[in-house]
What we know:
Elements: E1 2-8, H1 16-27, E2 31-37, H2 43-52, E3 57-60, H3 65-71, E4 74-75, H4 77-82, E5 87-90, E6 96-99, H5 102-113, E7 122-126, H6 130-141, E8 146-150, H7 154-164, E9 167-169, E10 178-183, E11 201-209, H8 218-225, E12 229-231, H9 234-249, H10 256-268
Helix pairs in contact: 1-9, 5-6, 5-9
This protein binds 2'-monophosphoadenosine-5'-diphosphate.
Keywords: Amino-acid biosynthesis, Aromatic amino acid biosynthesis, NADP, Oxidoreductase
Pathway: Metabolic intermediate biosynthesis; chorismate biosynthesis; chorismate from D-erythrose 4-phosphate and phosphoenolpyruvate: step 4/7
Catalytic activity: shikimate + NADP(+) = 3-dehydroshikimate + NADPH + H(+)
Amino acid sequence: MDQYAVVGNPIAHSKSPSIHAYFATQTQQSLTYSTLLGDEVGFEQQVRDFFQQGGKGLNVTVPFKERAYAMCDILSQRAKQAGAVNTLLLSEKGELFGDNTDGIGMVRDITDNYQRTLKNKRVLILGAGGAVRGVLEPILSASPASVTIANRTVEKAQGLADHFDCLASSFDALEGTFDIIINGTSASLSGNLPPLKDELIGDQTWCYDMMYGIERTVFLQWAHERGADGADGLGMLVGQAAEAFYLWRQVRPNTASLVKEMRQQMRVA
Ligand code: ATR
């Protein structure tokens, strides 16, 4: 049976094995998908060994996405732009090919599952770290009217804005309302929010949090209190997995039913 795995550290609580098992059943593909505890010292050798032993594909997660990027022979355009790789496979010639499906997973979640278009919209992105860098290319490919990156450390937002040809701002200097606000800061992991002005939210504003949880995230709570609807990043997690599955198997699974099921499981757990 074809073998796949996710490599990261920590890895025990990864949801990827159950997501891919669900996709495999749904699309009637015969495969196994396991976890691999990433080795800080020997990560590259671990990856090579996995493929040497016949492994077909790897997902890469924290903290190895940049190292995976650095060791690839071939990179997709979106992986190049992200500077990070979350999906690995071997080409027909045996070269290591790296892609990044995080951004497209998020964009498809927004457009397919939530029926929101990014086209011609004023988009605000909060944060300028690795997570945001990973999603910028697919967001820009969806032809928004403008993309503004706001970050606590403005220089980091400016660096990304220069590279991706969009706008940078501090939180203070943001002006006007936005159609779509995407939270990509890691602040909400610890229950914090950047200082966001109420005026950012207008009648049409819709919010997306790259984080997810059982309860509404602090960012989505902030939006909700100001009358804006939104969604968390559970669908992004499932979406990036679906795109990886598609790369490996050339079959694109349906994500909506799994997101619904996972949401229910999170509530009863
Ligand atoms: P990730 O891989 O999750 O993107 P990262 O590269 O460390 O992690 O980036 C974290 C992002 O969250 C950064 O944009 C960071 O802002 P700074 O660049 O100013 O550090 C942002 N962030 C983290 N904690 C924050 C907080 N309490 N308030 C505002 N922004 C925060």
